[in-house]
Write a structure and sequence with these properties.
Length: 300
């Protein structure tokens, strides 16, 4: 028996993450189809419930490093906790990266020779905290991606910043023990790059949360039930049970439940949600024009 479940998935950072989850799930012969939506951080999975359970699907997703969430309330709570945690990480990264900006100011013409550069060992410590503590989730995500045979954005961030940091570490030791007079240090490059990536992710999550809230508000405007007419009988049905060519009765003042055309009567409709028009619009059945009927006759 084929069963379909909708779940939340936490921990996705880019489209490659969603593709990886889909790839792993769709490899299972007992899973009919798995569709992962990065924007809403949800997944719709159809599977053979006689051979596979929800717990098995959750275990598969967890095994590749992501957190499945069944209840929407739990998903929202986890998303809020992750948002707060990432905001703290961003603030700490900014605080640690700002002193490293001083190392770049010397290269400006009007500050040349000002010796604003801080001690290389201080740079090493500040950048090291950003690189290996603040950016630890990047390393984890990159490891999961490489283990799954793909390369996501975090792999590129980790490669670029790690190389810049390690080269700077080598030059710091050469400065201290090999009497290198002008060490080429790139600690600020790695730290500031990570900070900008964190800032971008933070803004993306905030925009995504606002968009999701707006979409949820729009969905709530749709009624849950509608009245359909079958012959001379009227009955209430759920919106999901309405089929093409069903005749739906809309009472005065009620919300229009589904898209369609007026086949009888007239009404006044509030179309501000779609058109922005603030005043209600009169709508009624449209009579086919003589020209339209002639064109239809000629066509057939």
């Amino acid at each position: 028996m084929v069963q379909t479940i909708n779940i939340g998935i936490e921990g996705m950072t880019c489209a490659a993450c969603a593709q990886r989850i889909e790839k792993v799930l769709n490899k299972d012969p007992n899973i009919t189809e798995a569709v992962i939506n990065l924007a809403t951080e949800t997944g719709q999975i159809a599977f053979d419930s006689s051979k596979l359970s929800e717990a098995d699907i959750f275990a598969k997703i967890k095994s590749i490093g992501y957190q499945p969430v069944k209840a929407k309330a739990d998903q929202e709570a986890i998303a809020k906790a992750i948002y707060r945690r990432d905001r703290i990480r961003l603030i700490v990264a900014i605080v640690l990266s700002v002193p490293l900006l001083a190392t770049m100011l010397e290269h400006l013409p009007f500050l040349a020779g000002s010796h604003l550069t801080i001690n290389p060992w201080v740079q090493l410590v500040l950048a090291g905290i950003v690189q290996f503590v603040i950016a630890a989730p990047f390393y984890l995500s990159a490891y999961r991606a490489i283990r799954g045979g793909i390369a996501n954005m975090d792999v590129l961030v980790v490669l670029g910043t790690t190389v810049a940091y390690l080269v700077s570490v080598v030059n710091t030791f050469r400065f201290q023990f090999a009497h290198l007079h002008h060490p080429m240090l790139y600690f600020e490059t790695s730290a500031i790059l990570i900070t900008f990536v964190l800032l971008g992710k933070h803004l993306e999550k905030r925009a995504k949360a606002q968009t999701t809230a707006a979409i949820t508000s729009l969905v709530k405007l749709q009624p849950n039930e509608a009245i359909i007419i079958e012959g001379d009988v009227e009955k209430k049905v759920a919106i999901k049970d309405i089929r093409l060519d069903d005749v739906v009765k809309v009472l005065p003042g009620a919300k229009i439940p589904v898209d369609g055309v007026i086949i009888k009567g007239s009404t006044t409709v509030d179309e501000s949600l779609l058109t922005g028009e603030s005043l209600p619009i009169d709508r009624e059945k449209r009579m086919q024009s003589l020209l339209g009927r002639l064109i239809k006759m000629a066509w057939y």
